[in-house]
Design brief:
- This protein has 395 residues and is of the alpha+beta class.
- The relative contact order is 0.19.
- The N and C termini lie far apart (50 Å).
- It is built from 14 helices and twelve strands.
- About 2% of the residues have low confidence.
- The protein is globular and about 60 Å long.
Length: 395
Amino acid sequence: MPDSEPTTVQTSLEFDPHAPDLSPARAYELYADLRAQCPVARGESYGGYWAVSRYDDVRAVALDHETYSSTGGVYVPAVSDNRFPPIDHDPPEHAGFRALIAPLTSGAAAKAMEPKIQATVDRLVDTFIDRGRAELVDELSTPLPLDVITQLYDLDAEQSEHIRSYSLEFLEHASGPRGREIIDRVCAYWISLFDERRTEPRADFLTGLLEANKELGASDGELANMMFILTYAGHDSTALGLSNTLLYLAEHPDVQQRLIDEPKLVPSMIDEILRYETPLHWFPRQLTRDACLRGQEMKAGERVLLLFASANRDPEVFDRADEVVIDRRPNRHLAFGAGIHTCPGMALAKLETRLAVETVLRRIPGFRVDGEVSRTDPLEGGGRHLGVRTLPVTW
């Protein structure tokens, strides 16, 4: 791990994920200052933490789960005593929970879902194509991943709305005292669904999960916590990434035309927007032992924030880091993390985004912004989420 560059802590440079002025522009300005002046910066709020901003350091920490544990939780400060599998677990428990969700998150599972995802995209576009205008967040970016998840879970329309409403509620209150109450309420909801599936099994993910868990032996509470984070992250983070991509295309008709002419560039363009506009800006770890990084002596038990969004704009790794280069190759971005906690839904999220972008380019080419765009400002979801909340377009 990099440790050759001594650094003096700059107390005036502090990354506070809950700062009320943490707009996307402000966040990226701060990241640049941190990388240049204080790549391992101390923050004293919320019990204290270190913020790591350079690509090589962020990736190295993410890969070293023995020193930098995930058992301290995904929020700073903690919003609940609950632990959310598999993201809040280290080996060997981590592997067991990842195995439980493999039928939902593997590349093969994503490929098998492609016809259904394409049908959902087409159905959503059908609802607005004749109108000549749409609000792409509410009418495409959000309902697409939500519909995919509810198909996999075999939930009805009312249950789908419950999932979206609790996600929006949690986004608003993740940094406050209501976060804990929301989590407890939603976990009780999942436990009730487990009871239903035990009584009336179905050919769906939930029934398969309960069957597979007979070997692992996790409690209903642990499974409910896993379903909370899997569902919440699984649809909202995908919606954020897709909305960021659609906004960029709506603002750049030249890029739209290039992708129409060179459709093989769509996957690399999606990866580049994920790098440039990373949907989830940071995740925490907790030190299991004393460590030194960039000359900073960190103590066992302290929290470390991995600034993935900052790493993705590191000019030492990415040429023209503050520009969108749609054919960038290679693109070693960290939008999905790294190491054992790489986002399990990566394959599904990329597939949904690709199919949506390809369909929009084919069916409503030349779409452009027509109205006021709203973005997450400040960053939402505990100071982490970057995306578009309204995107009115016409064509």
